[in-house]
Amino acid sequence: MLKIFLLSLILSISCQKQEDRKNITLKITAWEGYTPKKILDLFKARVEKKYDINLNYEITLPNNEEVMLKKLESKDVHIVSLSHYIYRDPLYKYYAKKLLHPIELKRIPNYKHIFSPFKKIDFVFEEDSFYGVPLAHASYRLMYNSALVDEVPKSWKVLYTPENRKKYIVSDYHFETNSYITALSLGARRNQLNRIELYQTEEYLQELKILAEGSKGYWDEVEKPSELIGKTYATGFGNFIHKLKKSGESWKFANPIEGEPAYIDFYSICSCIPKDSLEYIIAHEWVNYSLSIKYQLDVIINGLGEMPVTTDLKSQLSLEQIERYHLDDPLHFIKNSFFWNERTQELLNIQKESWESFLIKN
Predict the structure, then answer these.
(1) Is the Cβ–Cβ distance between 269 and 283 less than 8 Å?
(2) Which residues pair with 224 in a beta bridge?
(3) Of 6, 38, 188, 277, which is the most buried if we count CB atoms within 10 A?
(4) What are the phi and psi torsion angles at 302 (to 5°)?
């Protein structure tokens, strides 16, 4: 009886202690894949132990970028994932509306592991403060089936030649990047890609039509390895092309001289959180955790198939992965890959309408 009594007393004290702990709900609005349950559970255990709290989550998976904006404006979020071009987008005005907290670098110790090209990206800097911590990135790349080409392609122009018609596959979804590579193939400069007049010339429209009609089928938001089988060239993010080796095909990445359009996602913190509050501290903890080896490996690389933003995980990667992510070649993100600028809704409408008008409907 005494043992039962003591056990009951211990359980009672434990439950009372649990009830006495402060309850915190962390509100995250992020693209699907950035908040898997396994990672949330690991972070929860760590933070509850460190701060002696009960941590709960409110996760929102948006279907467009307007959801992020509304969450921030209504003060109904702590952390958002934002793409680089959104920060200065005239449609959203994140800085003018003061919707974001400046990041406190001292609360992000893992920041020191960020790949050097991603530490000074202008989009997230405003008046000597910075408002976003890199999370993941990807490039819209030119890929080729090494067994079917005699020479590594050096330009996006390879997709627009008559001899390669129906030998490649492009996305029917990513109208914006298809517009960019078409403009680049015609000689446009990277810093000109947000100019509307580029996408209204007869020469551009004719070239875009060639790209759309010459594709042998289309892939959607993310290409599947099976969709590349038998093709000679492809556009894509190349997330899982290594899996094609099982089908007997060896695909590689080209480095077109015009450059590769790329995006980078960040985590940002809502200005609605009182500075130095527990929610503010834990929001920084989450952002810091996203730069951990565990998160970058499990979520970014193995989960989403995107490219990491940190370098301390190199020992966990194959030589093929290190080469693919250019972790030993920081100059790649100056010479080859570039992050496209903010754009107006008018430009997006023009690009989308033109691209969709040329797609071959099944």
Answers:
(1) yes
(2) none
(3) 188
(4) -80, -30
